[in-house]
Request: fold
Amino acid sequence: MAQKPSIPKGTRDFGPAEMARRNYIFDTIRSVYALYGFRQIETPAMENLSTLMGKYGEEGDKLLFKILNSGDFLRGIDANELSGEGSPKLAAQLCEKGLRYDLTVPFARYVVQHREELTLPFRRFQIQPVWRADRPQKGRYREFYQCDADVVGSDSLLNEVELMQIVDEVFRRFGIRVCIKINNRKILTGIAEIIGQADKIVDITVAIDKLDKIGLDNVNAELAEAGIPADAIEKLQPIIQLSGSNADKLATMRAVLKDSEIGLKGIDEVEFVLNQFAAVTAPSLQGRAGGGSSLEFDLTLARGLNYYTGCIFEVKALDVEIGSITGGGRYDNLTGIFGMPGLSGVGISFGADRIYDVLNQLDLYPKEVSTATQLLFVNFGEAEAAYALPAVAACRQAGIRTEIYPDAAKMKKQMQYANAREIPFVALAGESEMAEGKFTLKNMTTGEQQLISASEIARIIQS
Amino acid sequence: MAQKPSIPKGTRDFGPAEMARRNYIFDTIRSVYALYGFRQIETPAMENLSTLMGKYGEEGDKLLFKILNSGDFLRGIDANELSGEGSPKLAAQLCEKGLRYDLTVPFARYVVQHREELTLPFRRFQIQPVWRADRPQKGRYREFYQCDADVVGSDSLLNEVELMQIVDEVFRRFGIRVCIKINNRKILTGIAEIIGQADKIVDITVAIDKLDKIGLDNVNAELAEAGIPADAIEKLQPIIQLSGSNADKLATMRAVLKDSEIGLKGIDEVEFVLNQFAAVTAPSLQGRAGGGSSLEFDLTLARGLNYYTGCIFEVKALDVEIGSITGGGRYDNLTGIFGMPGLSGVGISFGADRIYDVLNQLDLYPKEVSTATQLLFVNFGEAEAAYALPAVAACRQAGIRTEIYPDAAKMKKQMQYANAREIPFVALAGESEMAEGKFTLKNMTTGEQQLISASEIARIIQS
Reply:
């Protein structure tokens, strides 16, 4: 036998059991998005490289999967280019197209391209795979799904509130208890402003984040090491030791940032979102199943992407050790890169792969998730199969997922098939059943058997 | 403003209205597949080129989208290769991976790779996009979805019968009247055998297919032109003029093919499928809505793909002029290309793009297909919005797709938004409604307005 075929590293096959679970995740997110008035779009897997290049930094450009031009792909390329290493510049000559790297840039491209057809504010969601030539490792894939929702064309903070409600509702439906962390880029800018260290904001948030682990002295030492002067570190003390309720923290920050207009703006924004979210979720919590999310102001939340300009958020599962399972924020000029400035947007992205892992670890998949076969008719031969086929059709018409074993194989083999497939009911009709116009229905869990007419089968399985 | 961004030729963006319709198509096919015990899998967009190359003929190899290797893609490539035209051989050195071209080869790869985990017979379905570097033209795209179902590991013709039932059920649900054409490769082989012209079978079926248009004499002239000797053409006469019911045609063919063992086997197979399908669909047709498909033995059906070995089928819409909207057949050795011989399979593939066109032309989409917003709350300002938010949440909890306009924009602008989005209900609460603890609910279709409490809104919209 030849060598077993395989798939590219970092990619995955999804078998039937995994697919049922993944569909449950996507369907849940999709229906909540729709409930909030978001509408689905899809964009092509391939975008022009000119759309993608330069949007994810130099490193991102390297991680784009590029598609070799069809036909004579060497035409018009200078021979000198073809020596030495395969450079990014040469790649861009050999390839006009690339696979999408995320859903945000294609969405920005979509908005600009279709702007005449769109009614603003435009609320869209999109659930599609993306591809990145990252080094594959545990939990990091070269093909994975993103589940994004964005509103563009509205500055209102109500959008932020609604996105938090969506997060709350989705994880409530999953039964996953989460904490939503919220911060605001304007607050971070304000901090940098008051200590006069605009370029050190990442060092600062990273150091503050370590407070619990390494203690105050070590945090201050790290800040000094990062080149932050002593007087600035002094000013940072109330920020580093920020604690208490959301209201406490906001009050402290308001005092610290009193001289920074943009910083105070950030405080106002976070306060609005926290208050509105509390007002809206409090009554609806009554009498509802599931977790209920807490929303927490977290100054150490920075998020890597440079395009965020306002509120930013991230979601952590409370009962599983895993990174952020959802994130997002406001950006003020995403479509500017395609020549359409001044369009503000805010969005979130659910991390389907990590949510899959959390649901698995907590064993939270509902039983009904499976779309597997419910009933198998055993096949004893041509005459018996012909006798069974109308009953098979009737069961399907009643909505029961039904199979008839296609071959008249040995009984043992057919029962093994039912067991391996975890089919809960098996129907049999041999000579004696046929003589009576009936079927033997076997419950594979209890072993119980009963002799019944075809019309009773569906009713029994459904009950 | 910069030049509008665009997408690669032959690819498409799908907006919200198209997505709702496409999801309706995919969901319908998916639920019928599941009803018949087929289970969903997904495979990666990228396969190793070694998996794809040589499976679709020389032309197919050229139509594969190939992905440039990451990093130094020129490493190890002989400089001499880099002059002249970009050859397929060089492409295979620059690229290890390609985008899948169909779902059949990845499925065969999946079966071989996962054979230890699979219980045979394995019934899988798969709904994913495929990519082909074809010249784009009307109705032909470089990215399009396929919706395949296959059974592997069973020789039984019951599988063919069930696939015909699936076709019947899917188009019944769509409300599209169709004719399913069936033929068998063994019959075509038998015909070639009895006239001693094994290599002329395509010319023969093409010529026969023109009978209605050009008449018998011209068909015979074409056959002679194709190099078929007079005595063979003589033997073909009953085949060319084949007519009558399925039973008539089978009887004629049985006589013609009496000396061809394989030909008679093909007749038997078609007869079995026709009879069983008639037996199974006849009773279930009673009292059911929708079209009801006819199954017709059509000797001119050949289908291009070389891997078919038994029954082949194609579906035509009766009320729209369009090519085949579904097709499939039996293949006996698909996994042999990956070193796993002897596994027979049979499958079908629904053409989602053409079905989309047919449903559009016949205006057959059900009203409920839309997942658009049902209710918009107008936003008069911060206090009014805060008053509305609990009602918004309650409506969503009742399952109504609800939005609140995020900005306190002019009333006119908000109503224009509701109109453009075709939102059927708008709720308003200004000073007077708030004083009474109520909302004005406006039916955008009738113009009717009523003053009601928040708890009544959901009930009225749902009724």
